[in-house]
Specification:
Elements lengths: L16 H78 L17 H4 L3 H10 L5 H60 L4
């Protein structure tokens, strides 16, 4: 076996500069087109995923908004009951002989469920996801939050009012009973002496 060493340029058959250039350009063009298609598919997938996530958020906020308005409806009914209860207690105070002087706080007047909805979710429901002027929407949002704070403050006030009312009633009832006992003793003394016939 003979070993032959050759140096120099070797060309395969009939290839030319233009053929090689076309092959290189075709390979590069195929790679660029494949890359662009891959990027387009990736971006389309990202857009579809973002749309699905947005649809889930929108559905969640619609359900949360519906829940919120149901809670408001229940609270509206409870507030009307509380107003009637205040009117009844006021009338009972006018007719002191009435033994039911306590102001009943309507149990349904409960803001805990509404307060459990995060401020971020309420803000998105009433400001971010609504059409209209930003200042008006923000003002409505603050008014809603303030209404619930006021309802909580009123409930605390009426609870304190009930405690004060009972405390004063018991103090005065004790004085009344003591004074009534003294008056009865005086009346009995006067009757026994013959002052009253």
């Amino acid at each position: 076996m003979d070993i032959i060493f050759q140096s120099g340029e070797f060309y395969g058959g009939d290839s030319s500069f233009w053929t090689n250039l076309i092959n290189v350009v075709a390979a590069m063009l195929g790679a660029v087109i494949s890359g662009l298609i891959a990027i387009w598919i990736f971006k389309k997938g990202l857009k579809e995923q973002a749309k699905r996530e947005q649809d889930i958020k929108t559905k969640r906020y619609k359900e949360l908004e519906s829940h919120f308005f149901h809670l408001i409806s229940f609270m509206d009914s409870a507030i009307n009951q509380q107003v009637n209860e205040i009117a009844r207690s006021s009338q009972a105070l006018k007719n002191f002989g009435n033994k039911k002087l306590a102001l009943r706080i309507v149990p349904a007047l409960n803001t805990n469920e509404v307060n459990s909805i995060s401020n971020e979710d309420l803000y998105k429901m009433f400001v971010s996801n609504r059409i209209g002027e930003a200042d008006d929407k923000a003002s409505d949002f603050l008014n809603i939050k303030n209404c619930f704070r006021h309802i909580d403050e009123i409930k605390i006030y009426f609870g304190n009012f009930n405690q004060t009312l009972f405390k004063r009633l018991e103090e005065n009832r004790l004085k009344w009973n003591q004074n009534l006992k003294a008056l009865m003793e005086l009346y009995n003394k006067l009757c026994s002496r013959g002052h009253f016939k």
